């Protein structure tokens, strides 16, 4: 008689895991009260796709992806939200006296019984990916059943000292459920921004993940006013003002984790567009080594930020990670022996031991006015959120000339153009040369997904090779992501910074005072050892951190 192997034994027999790993997973499963499949995935021994393929083969139950099913609304209406969320399953079709259900656990007999009790129908199980099932639950239960209640009730949302608790199950208002769902999923997905747009017929929700916008949900347009009002209420904004742009701030609490959110509304033809920036303090405050500098640049940067006086500028476009770099540096330098004061618009995070000032133009507290006051507070280190005008630039120069270390940001395309930008603002060349110690320019490029990364050899001509000046006949060992569940089949997961560090020295100071062009300054800086952003990106592509295609998206052709 042919021996029947258990699920774990099959994985060992087929060489996917070792017997020792199976033993560890079994112990881990018992400690954490998980299924064996969940334990193996959590420990990183196997991918979910392998689990599903093995179960499918063993139990003869087909695997179905979200893209392959057509959802029958009758099936969704038939089974309660309580039941499907409890078991992480999704009913998608009724055929005769059977309901077809996507499941993560095909041996769940309790689920079969409970579905039969609710619907009087038998179950036909299909294996599904957990994340896709959760997406379906949020799309059909998190929206459809909730919006049906929107016209029927309103309730207050309780706020505590740590912000709005979106983990709570006690918030029964439908619009609160939708808003909480949007915020919670954005945090889980690692989104940096939430975009809520409105067209003639619908509301479209998109998340920006790793710098790219993805559509995640649609709602009927009639629910747009209630959703926007809810967000405005949370952000302490004027819910009756719909003709003018507004800014607000929300703090949410997700399972004990505080997330700050910056809200911006913009009137449009079909209604107000809402954009929300998510600020995770845990991601903002890093160790210097986590900023992604190459070893040579990291050593130079570490020496630079320990300068006693001068101006150090962090530059790049919006969303390039300037705030993360600045906060990391200030946190690194934070010491009881130093008086550190920041002036920001807005103050993104509260830092212990540091005096932070919020710009408020309506009250007369501009960057320039705030800086004047800060200079009377005996500071050692000053952080300026952004140099926006001649007056602010002039005061920053004055501060550095009077014995202070000044950090600031500027929106520029590369490090050397920052020198020209300061002079265009009206700062005299000799002052720029005498006060600026160094300039970091950076971008965030998508990181290759570590779960599906593969190496390949590039020997043929490509636009990327031409862009980086690599001969077409030269074979390169490069890396790419093939696409998997972990990265939603994009090949990328997370981001990594690419940098350019311009360090001032006597020769470059002399060139600036004598009126050297931007190109002349850059060429000489490269001769003196500056690694351009293009080179830094190329090096990181060779390391397998990102791809040449991704670097090319962000780097200037002139580099």
UniProtKB/TrEMBL annotation:
The UniProt record lists the keyword Membrane: no
Any Pfam family: MshEN
Database matches in SMART domains: AAA (SM00382)
InterPro entries xref list: AAA+_ATPase (IPR003593), P-loop_NTPase (IPR027417), T2SS/T4SS_dom (IPR001482), T2SS_E_N_sf (IPR037257), T2SS_GspE_N (IPR007831)
Domain of life: Bacteria
Identification of the protein by name: Type II secretion system protein GspE
Keywords carried by this UniProt record: ATP-binding, Nucleotide-binding
MF terms in GO: ATP binding; ATP hydrolysis activity
Native source species: Bacillus cereus
Family recorded in the similarity comment: Belongs to the GSP E family.
Chain ranges of the Bacterial type II secretion system protein E domain: 375-389
CC per GO annotation: plasma membrane
């Amino acid at each position: 008689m042919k021996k029947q192997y258990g699920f774990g034994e099959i994985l060992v027999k087929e060489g996917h895991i070792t017997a020792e790993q199976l033993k560890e997973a079994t112990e881990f499963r018992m400690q954490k009260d998980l299924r064996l499949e969940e334990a193996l995935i959590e420990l990183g021994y196997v991918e979910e796709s392998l689990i599903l393929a093995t179960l499918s083969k063993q139990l003869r139950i087909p695997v179905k992806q979200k893209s392959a099913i057509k959802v029958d609304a009758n099936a969704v209406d038939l089974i309660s939200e309580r039941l499907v969320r409890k078991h992480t399953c999704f009913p998608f079709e009724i055929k005769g006296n059977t309901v077809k259900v996507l499941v993560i656990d095909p041996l769940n007999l309790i689920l079969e019984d409970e579905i039969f009790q609710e619907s009087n129908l038998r179950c036909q199980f299909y294996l599904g990916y957990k994340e896709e099932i959760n997406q379906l639950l949020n799309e059909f239960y998190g929206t459809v059943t909730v919006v049906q209640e929107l016209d029927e009730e309103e309730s207050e949302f309780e706020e505590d000292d740590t912000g709005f608790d979106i983990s709570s199950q006690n918030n029964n208002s439908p619009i609160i459920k939708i808003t909480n769902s949007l915020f919670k999923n954005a945090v889980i997905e690692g989104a940096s921004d939430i975009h809520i747009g409105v067209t003639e017929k619908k509301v479209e929700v998109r998340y920006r993940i790793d710098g790219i916008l993805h559509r995640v949900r649609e709602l009927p347009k009639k629910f747009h006013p209630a959703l926007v009002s809810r967000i405005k209420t949370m952000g302490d904004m004027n819910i009756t003002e719909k003709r003018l742009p507004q800014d607000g701030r929300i703090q949410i609490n997700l399972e004990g984790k505080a997330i700050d959110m910056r809200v911006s509304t913009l009137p449009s033809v079909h209604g107000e567009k809402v954009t929300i920036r998510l600020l995770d303090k845990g991601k903002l405050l890093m160790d210097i080594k986590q900023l992604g500098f190459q070893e040579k640049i990291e050593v130079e940067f570490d020496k630079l930020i320990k300068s006693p006086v001068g101006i150090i500028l962090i530059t790049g476009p919006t969303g390039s990670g300037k705030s993360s770099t600045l906060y990391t540096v200030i946190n690194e330098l934070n010491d009881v022996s130093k008086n550190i004061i920041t002036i920001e618009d807005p103050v993104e995070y509260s830092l212990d031991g540091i005096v932070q000032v919020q710009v408020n133009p309506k009250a007369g507290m501009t960057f320039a006015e705030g800086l004047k006051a800060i200079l009377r507070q005996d500071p050692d280190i000053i952080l300026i959120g952004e140099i926006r005008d001649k007056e602010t630039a002039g005061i920053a120069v004055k501060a550095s000339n009077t014995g202070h270390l000044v950090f600031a940001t500027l929106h520029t395309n590369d490090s050397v153009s920052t020198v020209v930008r300061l002079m265009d603002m009206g700062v005299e060349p000799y002052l720029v040369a005498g006060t600026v110690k160094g300039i970091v320019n950076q971008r965030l490029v998508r990181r290759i997904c570590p779960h599906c990364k593969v190496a390949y050899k590039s020997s043929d001509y490509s636009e990327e090779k031409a862009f980086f000046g690599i001969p077409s006949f030269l074979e390169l060992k490069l890396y790419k992501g093939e696409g998997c569940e972990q990265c939603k089949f994009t090949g990328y997961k997370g981001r990594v910074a690419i940098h350019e560090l311009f360090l001032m020295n006597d020769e470059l100071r002399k060139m600036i005072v004598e009126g050297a062009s931007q190109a002349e300054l850059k060429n000489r800086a490269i001769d003196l050892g500056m690694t351009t952003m293009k080179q830094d990106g190329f090096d990181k592509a060779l390391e397998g951190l990102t791809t040449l295609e991704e670097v090319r998206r962000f780097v200037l052709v002139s580099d």
